[in-house]
Automatic annotation (TrEMBL):
It comes from Clostridium drakei. One of its GO terms (cellular component) is plasma membrane. This is AI-2E family transporter. It comes from the Bacteria. InterPro entries: AI-2E-like. It is found in: Cell membrane. The lineage of its organism: Bacteria, Bacillati, Bacillota, Clostridia, Eubacteriales.
């Protein structure tokens, strides 16, 4: 009878939750407000929290030396900005040369299938591939996409002042949030706990501490995984002679923060280039891909992420794929740590027998 009462309560809560969602979905201006808040506030907060856990070790070093928290936070931001600007300056200089070479490569990617077939009988397979996938059209689409993106980027710089101001304001907002997180991050938890009755404070303190540990472990771990992945793929590209190795490895680093599917997405354009260059480049790129993926799955991820979130790989895959379908890259980026946070909270709720 007690079990039935619990089941009825749970079913009523679930039905009320779905009913609330349906009712809110009928009020369009609420969703408009939510979308605005998401773009203007939530995204900068997510980025700030992510950067906070990356810069937290450096800030802790200054704090341990007895430096005032405001000064240590400011020093952490200044050092990080200088390092980021130096890296960006080096990358932009190198990327300009790489993009010039990439432009030449794209125009020269059109293969002469008759020559390929006549050089080696094995390469007749490639001739059939070219016929079936229409590589020339694929290259043309890629080239047009790059040209359109470049034109839009230039247009946004010279013509759309509002976008520039908006981007600047968001960057400034991220820096301000990051500064206060570094300076007063420990106070936010205490002030939040003080809002609740005394009997829940131990539960909240332990839960928030575990959530903080889980987020810290995930962000730093994912950073190391993405960095390791980009270094390995850069070395592999250099060995096989892949053009513009730095640019593609940089994309691998950025997309590496999206679990599982990020690495596969980063391989799309290099795969197109490999197909255009013939069967030998396809084989070499396949070897690089298999080697890096094996090292990632067998060495890098177990070594770095083994004791962080304790989430089954299949759960990660389903979470990321679902998030990409509904919310795009940003949703895929935050879904795993969000799931880990909810998992910690629910487990603590059952431990303290708050859910009855």
């Amino acid at each position: 009878m007690i079990l039935n009462n619990k089941l009825i309560k749970i079913l009523i809560i679930i039905n009320l939750l779905f009913l609330s969602i349906i009712l809110f979905s009928k009020i369009h201006f609420i969703f408009k407000i939510i979308r605005t808040l998401y773009k203007c506030i939530l995204v900068p907060i997510i980025i700030s929290v992510f950067l906070y856990y990356i810069l937290k070790p450096l800030n802790n070093i200054f704090n341990k030396k007895g430096i005032n928290k405001s000064i240590s936070s400011l020093l952490t931001l200044i050092i990080s900005l200088i390092a980021a600007l130096l890296i960006l300056y080096f990358f932009i200089r190198y990327a300009i040369l790489e993009f010039n070479e990439l432009s030449k490569n794209i125009h020269n990617l059109s293969p002469n299938t008759n020559t390929i077939a006549s050089q080696n009988p094995i390469n007749s397979i490639v001739n059939e591939i070219y016929k079936s996938i229409n590589i020339n059209e694929l290259i043309k689409i890629t080239n047009n996409m790059m040209i359109n993106y470049t034109q839009k980027f230039q247009s946004s710089i010279y013509k759309n002042i509002n976008d520039i101001v908006d981007a600047f304001s968001k960057i400034l907002l991220v820096l301000l949030i990051l500064f206060f997180l570094l300076k007063d991050g420990f106070k936010f938890r205490d002030k939040f706990i003080d809002l609740f009755p005394e009997k829940y404070k131990d539960f909240l303190s332990e839960t928030l501490c575990n959530v903080d540990k889980a987020l810290n472990a995930y962000v730093t771990g994912q950073l190391m995984v993405a960095l390791s992945l980009s270094i390995m793929i850069y070395i592999g590209y250099k060995i096989i002679g892949m053009p513009n190795a730095l640019i593609w490895s940089f994309f691998t680093f950025i997309l590496g923060f999206i679990p599982f599917i990020g690495f596969f997405i980063s391989m799309i354009i290099p795969s197109i280039i490999a197909i255009s260059k013939g069967i030998y480049m396809i084989i070499k790129l396949s070897i690089v891909f298999i080697t890096v993926q094996t090292l990632k799955g067998r060495v890098v991820v177990p070594l770095i992420m083994s004791s962080t979130l304790k989430i089954h790989p299949l759960t990660d895959i389903f979470l990321v794929v679902t998030a990409v379908s509904y919310g795009g890259p940003m949703a895929a980026f935050i879904i795993v740590p969000l799931y880990a946070m909810l998992k910690v909270i629910v487990l603590k709720l059952y431990k303290y027998r708050i859910i009855k």
